[in-house]
Amino acid sequence: MNRPIQELHVAVLMGGISPEREVSLSSGRMCADALEGQAARVTRVDAGRDLAQVLAELKPDVAFNALHGVWGEDGCVQGILETLQIPYTHSGVLASAVAMDKDKSKAVLRAAGIVVPGGGLFDRHEVAARHVIAPPYVIKPNAEGSSVGVYLVREGANRPVAEVGEPGWTYGEQVMVEPFIAGNELAVTVLGEKSGPRALTVTDITPTKGFYDYEAKYTPGGSRHVLPADLPARVFEAALRISERAHTALGCRGVTRSDFRYDDLNDDLVLLEVNTQPGMTPTSLAPEQAAFTGMAYVDLVRWMVEDASCPR
After folding, report:
1. Residue 302: which CATH number?
2. 259 assigned ligand-binding residue
């Protein structure tokens, strides 16, 4: 956007219809507050199925997409915004859709020479009935974010995860099953600047209990962040450069976050996934990394609005 933020009407899209609704509301409220603090005209939109009609009536100058999970993060809302020709933050339709689909994004990243986990897609009922790969392994919905519906099957487990096959499972008929990679949980935020993607730093994440699931991500005190990560210099640098390559390979724009596992015993750095709409909550990694590099929360939010675009 070429206009001063004080002249903009920004629709902050939050809430939505995914299991990550509450996290999105938290992200959206903080982003809206930051924009209002910079004198932007802000309309807070709890995005529902009538979003196209709401936005057509509002006619905002830009949409700040603070939605997380299915529909808001997988290309659907991006398609609505492009149909209405409203500039919006974060990645476009194709990049959003591919990054959200773990199987397809792994294929793109692997083709770009990036190391990703093994495993693959399996029918959820088969996964619930038997060990489809040898434990330890991780079960994930193929198209959800924020560790929603993720299970860790530990080494020596006598049975698989029965919950995956239950009637109440709402995350698709196929699930991603990957070998569990021991070691450090790492994250890198990337800003898609006009001169090229720029990785900020590396955070080493240690959950205070269990593994880095939905609760650990969004509950205060659920995890401990070491910033910058205490890693060998070459591993630290590799995480930065791989994150930038992944951002480019998927065709992302705006802010992304790459999640890694680093197995120091075998010296393996594996990219788990790229999140095209990182959280902006009080416990979120992207604003924490931005602050570490000298970019305050309000500055990050303003940068995202200024970076907003819409293909013409």
Report:
1. 3.30.470.20
2. yes
